[in-house]
Amino acid sequence: xxxxxxxxxxxxxxxxxxxxxxxxxxxxxxxxxxxxxxxxxxxxxxxxxxxxxxxxxxxxxxxxxxxxxxxxxxxxxxxxxxxxxxxxxxxxxxxxxxxxxxxxxxxxxxxxxxxxx
Length: 117
Known about the structure:
mainly beta; single chain; 1 helix; 10 strands
């Protein structure tokens, strides 16, 4: 059974920072890429950051230079360090593996990030 539990969201002023955590069970980082997604009100869910099973990372243009994805393999946890936050970053943030997303698998509860101007 795959379980994904996101945490670390909250309310922060523009320019501030947050660190999100995703506790993943039932997934092996050796064979699965891990990603962060977000969904803002009235918008589709967007891919934010990706860490491949070999450790390479990539980012959406709108967060490049501000966000960093990392993982603690022994803890089965993936992180998203968010700096220089903007009001446009306000959204519910989710973690998942793209291979599950591609076949319509379920999502966790997400964690709300709200950035005030």
